[in-house]
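[Automated response] Your request has been received and processed.

Submitted sequence:
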Amino acid sequence: MSTSEQLQFTTKAFKMMNKLRLLKVHQDANYNSVVKPWILVEPSEVHLSQVHFCRDFEFPSHELRYLHWDGYPLESLPSNFYAKNLVELNMRCSNIKQLWKTELLENLKVINLSYSEHLNKIPNPSSVPNLEILTLEGCINLESLPRSIYKVETP
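Generated structure:
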């Protein structure tokens, strides 16, 4: 897909993908301009894909294990987002402000929210007991880290 195209996400478009385990939306121009400022790109060459959601959008599967979405455009995950099976959440350069509040996610091992400049809260480590990697580089609006994060033991 060309980087200048519009992309419409609807529940209907994903309806038959009930066993989807990996969803990857990559917006390279956004990632390069934020994370790799030394890569010079002419302004006329930067055409970010615009991703639009229908109002009732639901993520396609309860089987989703890997969600990789550079430049995620919304401030939060949809309220019906089923994250119990999630192993890796990679949302660099996203507009997300906060993830879930209290949901226990025993399978989640990797969270990468680097350069998500609107992020102001992260989940309590007790909600992700098997977390191995947490990347928050460039999250300039992160208010504070939960106190319990300092008590996390490394193997």
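Summary generated for your ticket: Strands lie at 6-9, 22-25, 50-53, 66-69, 88-90, 110-112, 133-135. Residues 114 and 149 are 17 Å apart (CA to CA).
If you did not submit this request, please reply to this message.
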